[in-house]
Structures are given as C-alpha cells and as structure tokens.
TrEMBL record:
Species annotation: Frondihabitans australicus
Pfam families: Pyr_redox_2, Pyr_redox_dim
Primary location class: cytoplasm
Active-site feature positions: H435 (proton acceptor)
Catalytic reaction(s) noted: N(6)-[(R)-dihydrolipoyl]-L-lysyl-[protein] + NAD(+) = N(6)-[(R)-lipoyl]-L-lysyl-[protein] + NADH + H(+)
Xref: NCBIfam families: lipoamide_DH (TIGR01350)
Protein known as: Dihydrolipoyl dehydrogenase
E.C. designation(s): 1.8.1.4
EC class name: oxidoreductase
GO BP: 2-oxoglutarate metabolic process
Length: 457
C-alpha cells in the first residue's frame, strides 16, 4: 500500500477529466489523472472521433457515386469495411499518442486503474490511496437502454456498432437523436436499408422545429425511413435478425437493432453518495460553479445534468481548474453551448429556439429570419440545400442561430461568438464575410434582420 499526495486529483481521463488535468498543471498545480481504461475516454476512442471518421468515409462514398454530375468519372465498387476500420483506428491511434505525449509533457501523473472516492480528499486505486487538496469527478457516461430492453446479440449500442465487421442489409435504430441519426446517415451511405424509431414528434427533437422538419424531409429524400411519435414496445431476435414491435402494433424486421436512446452517468458504486455528495438519478448535483455538496469536490462533463457534449466537458474541465486557482471563470449556460449533428445533412445550433425564446421573452419581443441556402453560391457549388435561421430580441441581441445543410457545423464558431457576446444583427451585418463561402449565409441573415437585406427579400 502507498499514499501519494497532489494538489488536484482527477477521477476519469475523458474529455472533461484530461482538460481539467492539463489546465490545472498549466496553472502550477501538481496533478494526478486516474483512468481505468485509456486517456481520451469515450469521445476519442468510442464516440466523437471514430463516428466522424465513419461519416467522412460515408461522404466519400456518396461523392464517388455522384461524381458524374460534377464532370468527374469514377467507378464505385462498394465499401471495404476493413479499410474503413483501419482508417478509423489510425486516426484514433494518432490522436491518442498525441494526447499521451501532451499529458506527459505537462508533468501530470497518470494512474491506471479503477478509482473510488473514499473521502472528500482521497481516491482509492487498488491498494493505493491518492490524496488531493481538491478532487474533480469526471467519470463520464455509458450507452443507456430502456427498462426491460436487454443489450446483447443483435440488439446493440453505438460502441458495438463501431466494431461491426459487416454492413447490415437492414437496420432498425431506436432513437432519432444525434447518435441515432448519425449512424442512420452512415449506414444509408454504406448501402443499408434504415428504419428509425423515435417516440417524440420529430427527429433531432431538441433542435428548432423548422430545422427538424427540414431534416426529416432531407432524410426522406435520401430514402431513410422513420416512425415518429410512437413508443417502442418490444423486440425479439433470432438467427435471422430482429423483430421490433411498437405500442400501436407496427412491426419492423431488421438484421440488427441499434439502441440509441441517450447516455447515462457513470457514477454507480464509486463512493460518491457514501462521501455525502448529492445525487439525482445517478447524476452529480453541483452549484453553478461545478462544486458538489462536499466542499473541495467538483464534477464535470456527462455526470453533471445537462448537455452531454465533449466540448462542454472540455470547457467545464478548464473552468474547474481555473476556479480552484481562484480565477473566477465565466459561467456559460448550456443553451449557449454550440451543438452539431454530423449527419447528411448537418445540423448546428446555439442559443434559444424560437419556442424557448417565446417562452422566455414573449412572442412580441422576438423576431427571426430564415435564410435559404439556395441563395448562397458556395452551397450551390457543394450541391446542398438548407437554411440558417437567426432569432433576435427586437432592438436587442441575437439569442439563437439554427442551421441545416452540408458542412454547416463549420459555421457554428461565428454563431456561438455572436450569441455569447450578445452581438446585435446590426453589429454582424457591418462585418465582411468572404465570398464565396457558406459563412456568407450568416451575414445575409444578419443583414436581413438589420433591415438591409442584400440577396434576400
């Protein structure tokens, strides 16, 4: 048995945990980073990075099939899934090596093993006690299922989907949120027949309603089928596939069922409640400065209620390190954290939807403009349709930006700066947007809201 002492001990080496460790080290603290698997967590190894690699491969496949319309003649021979897997793993390996080097260069002590909180200042890893003046909990999330729905065999989660060594002919996907529609997009591009089952009234249901409707039209045009507003009831499986039944009696047959109903917090049996930390349905409750009910113990990332996004975790990790250092960092509300769905088409948003803005301020206090990408030169070159909707307070700042179309995720940077800096449309309208870019579409929407539309009526 041994005891090691640090200024900051971080339990969990995913996006939030390693960001906290890097920033704390940068601020002069001695740091221990405890991780039972690999530093980088779900995002790097089983989530953001590998799924986006799949989506890029899917985009290449689609462009190859359609290249003739651009005057380029190619032959599409199908998907080499082993090659796709090698490409995906090479990216992860490269990023992982880089992250390991960065952690080492910052002088962070990495401790491999399953940690358990044993007091407000100690984490037990095997026979070793790791003591910290401050503890940061960053244990991440796991793929959830529904009550009574057992994962196994042909009923899989996103982690299993990444490791499939074949392309299914028919796929049923339970859940029309980000994970579900991204895998739907990949499998459709790879040649699968896809059926999404979503209990809520829309796909990507957390987005602006007009964006969700546009997204549904785009998926329908791609031949991706979906059932909305009806709950899942049961699934049976055999050697041939799965048989899915909905509460209204509808049935769907497929090779596999992907369960994509969200992610739950990894907090069970880690000692949190025993130490006195307030919990709610497995989530760690914190104040707005991410400190738990136990002084000196903080929590970041997916175990804190709210958006489960890697970049939210990064920001919270940095925030807590600076908070411990007494720098009083600025709190960013979840509504003002950018979101991107990397399907075809992409969806990107930040700030309040029209419905949320109406609820908060009243319908007579807000206005919006929806700029159609048909008027954007670069979007026409790329062959994408879509729109950019900007919501503002009348005679006030922009409070929401909502986008759909190919590559609109790359536009979210300006959008989140506009919202978080509380810029007025008039402020942005006077700035210059390079031509021809999709970024111009944001400028056009701002020009319209400022009362001086250029390429819009």
């Amino acid at each position: 048995m041994s005891e090691q002492n640090f200024d900051v001990v971080v339990l969990g080496g995913g996006s939030g945990g390693y960001a906290a460790a890097l920033r704390a080290s940068e601020l002069g603290f001695s740091v221990a980073l405890i991780e039972k698997d690999k530093v980088g967590g779900t995002c790097l190894h089983r989530g953001c990075i590998p799924t986006k690699a799949l989506l890029h491969a899917a985009e290449v496949a689609d462009v190859s099939r359609e290249s003739a319309k651009y005057g380029v003649n190619t032959d599409f021979h199908g998907i080499d899934l082993a090659g796709v897997t090698t490409y995906r793993r090479d990216i992860i390996d490269h990023k992982y090596k880089g992250l390991q080097g960065l952690v080492k260069a910052r002088g962070i002590t990495t401790i491999t093993g399953a940690g358990r909180l044993t007091s407000p200042s100690t984490v037990q890893v095997g026979d070793d006690t790791i003591t910290g003046k401050n503890i940061i909990l960053a244990t991440g999330s796991y793929s959830r299922s529904l009550p009574g729905l057992e994962i196994g065999g042909r009923v899989i989660t996103s982690e299993h989907a990444l490791e499939l060594d074949y392309i299914p002919n028919r796929v049923a996907i339970l859940g029309g949120g980000v994970i579900g529609v991204e895998f739907a997009s990949v499998w459709k591009s790879f040649g699968s027949d896809v059926q999404i089952i979503e209990a809520l009234p829309h796909l990507v249901p957390n987005e602006e309603e007009s964006i969700s409707k546009s997204f549904e039209r785009a998926f329908k045009k791609r031949g991706i089928k979906f059932s909305l507003g009806i709950r899942f009831q049961s699934v049976t499986q055999s050697d041939e596939g799965v048989h899915v039944t909905l509460e209204d009696g509808q049935t769907f047959d497929a090779d596999i069922l992907l369960v994509a109903v969200g992610r739950g917090p990894v907090t069970q049996d880690l000692g949190y409640e025993e130490v006195g930390i307030t919990m709610d349905r497995g989530f760690v409750i914190t104040n707005e400065r991410l400190e738990t009910s136990v002084p000196g113990v903080y929590a970041v990332g997916d175990i804190v209620p709210g958006l489960q996004l890697a970049h939210r975790s990064f920001q919270q990790g940095i925030f807590v390190a600076e908070e411990i250092a007494g720098q009083s960092p600025i709190v960013i509300e979840d509504a003002n954290i950018p979101k991107v769905t990397y399907s075809d088409p992409e969806v990107a948003s930040v700030g309040l939807t029209t419905a949320k803005a109406t609820e908060k301020y009243g319908a007579d206090k807000i206005s919006s403009y929806d700029y159609n990408l048909a008027g954007n030169g670069k979007s026409s070159i790329l062959g994408t349709s879509g729109s950019i909707k900007v919501v503002r307070l009348n005679d006030g700042p922009v409070i929401g930006v909502h986008m759909i179309g190919a590559r609109v995720g790359e536009l979210i940077g300006e959008a989140q700066l506009t919202v978080n800096w509380e810029a007025y449309p008039e402020d942005v309208a006077s700035l210059i947007h390079a031509h021809p870019t999709q970024n111009e579409a944001i400028g056009e929407a701002m020009l319209a809201l400022a009362g001086k539309p250029l390429h819009a009526m």
